[in-house]
Amino acid sequence: MSFGNFLKTLDPHLFSQYQLETYKNQSGGNVAKPDFSMAAGKPVFNRKKSFSIPSIAELPDSHFGKKYILDRKVPAERLTEIYYTDDYKSFIKETFPNYNKKLVDNDKRIVLPFYDQDNNLLGVQGRTVTDSKIKYITIKSNDDAMKIFGLNRVDLTKPVYVVEGPIDSMFIPNCIAIMDASLYTITTILGDHDYIFIHDNEPRNSAIVKQISRSIETGHKVCIWPTHTQEKDINDMIMSGSTIRGLLHIIDTNTYQGLKAKLQFEMWRKC
Question: Does 155 map to a domain?
Answer without folding.
Answer: no
